[in-house]
């Protein structure tokens, strides 16, 4: 009982430490696992036993027999499903080919390159060498997200890293499965035939089960066949069912099945998708906390001593500083990514939970089968995981500045609310070269925004989802345009530091409109135009106009006219370089307007 409670308590403590110091949670989790496991057994425990023993050893342990590995498999399936839910097709509009090449060409380079390195540097057998290389293909989203969360980058760069991290997990797992099948099959004659058969079965059953069950679950949810209070647990049961059923028909196809299921649900028209995401996020945090401590604690001190040699450093350096850049640069040939952006993507490649979990799973199975060199699998993979996380967590921000991908000024704009007016101004800003993101809790508004080609998310403003979105790292302006003054004020108070470093603005409330002398500092557009007024004008004149300004006096005259005319609302000023500035009657952003500038306004044409 003490060990079970201790794992959960230590896991959540590690998550808090990671949040507090803005580092990937995997780092304190693995360190805690090593401390209560092999380190405690070797240096801290009087009887030489671990403080937490994951596998029953005859006297103590949490999981008997294969119990730990069954738990690891099921937990990883839930984590990958949650990752699949977050994948949106619209996000890869500009970098889709790059991601495709990274998870194919890049994976192949890592697989063959790391296999050769492990063979000739460590002297491992070909089978074990390529099992190791298959396991380190993956880069996990659970470690990339915390690293990039506080680094302002161009959207395309963060999108590439996010999608690569999630999509490559099942690919690495599939390759590892094929290599594992090679090792498990006796006799050279069966290798090629068995591999092809297993690969075909994995792809067939994994995609079929994932696609079919996703549509079945979506149908049941949308038709209200599942009561609201059972939605989350029913979805969890469905994920486990898909994983287990797929595994029965094709061994190791479950990971692919749950990723496909998550992607189909995440990109479909599933009601209550937000609640499902929140539940899966919380569950994933708990499972990751437990898993990493268990897997690290399961390592023995003798396993760690196997790595106490110069070849370990040589292997790590070759994988990180040679193979990763080669894979990235070959995969981005012909893309719009700049050289410095490719260099940064090459630098960031931390390995995560899937690599560690499957390494422990396969390593232990091969050890029981007496395969030579199997004792190296788990410690070597953990070395790559811990080393890459340490390297990227401590240097990513500095390296981003060094190579020039660190955005000194974030020009992206986050719009809270996706009403008709928000969509109009969002489309205008996007057409003028600004990265715009709209969020709204109304799914219909989001769909209408997406139909206009805008990036829009169905997000609850009171959730933590926005703060964890690494693709909003280039956002520096915040505009709260909802019909609720409470939500607008809340958005300003909560997100102004993270998303409004260059300016946080909100619409005026009805009460403030009647008292112009106490207009808010962050007021937007004018003290006579609240949400209702903007909505009415947008409905009557759903178009944004530009008019060239002759001089400062002309600009002031135009502003005076638009402020008095109920059918015209001044919004922005565009300077000669095409840079847009937000207008506020009580905090004017434009100190000097010259000839050639343009006034941007909503309403009837002058």
Topology:
Elements: H1 2-21, H2 26-44, H3 67-85, H4 96-122, H5 126-135, H6 141-148, H7 155-184, H8 190-222, H9 231-249, H10 254-267, H11 273-297, H12 301-305, H13 310-331, H14 339-347, H15 353-368, H16 377-403, E1 412-416, H17 420-431, E2 436-440, H18 443-451, E3 455-458, E4 475-480, H19 485-499, E5 503-506, H20 510-513, H21 531-540, E6 544-548, H22 552-564, E7 568-574, E8 580-582, E9 598-603
Parallel strand pairs: 1-2, 1-4, 2-3, 4-5
Antiparallel strand pairs: 6-9, 7-8, 7-9
Helix pairs in contact: 1-2, 1-11, 2-11, 3-9, 3-10, 3-11, 3-15, 4-5, 4-7, 4-13, 5-7, 6-7, 6-16, 7-8, 7-15, 8-9, 8-10, 9-10, 9-11, 11-15, 13-14, 14-16, 15-16
Q: Could you please describe the fold and organization of this structure?
A:
The chain has 606 residues and is an alpha/beta fold. The protein is 60% helix and 7% strand. It is built from 22 helices and 9 strands. It has helices at 2-21, 26-44, 67-85, 96-122, 126-135, 141-148, 155-184, 190-222, 231-249, 254-267, 273-297, 301-305, 310-331, 339-347, 353-368, 377-403, 420-431, 443-451, 485-499, 510-513, 531-540, 552-564; strands at residues 412-416, 436-440, 455-458, 475-480, 503-506, 544-548, 568-574, 580-582, 598-603. The protein is elongated and about 85 Å long.
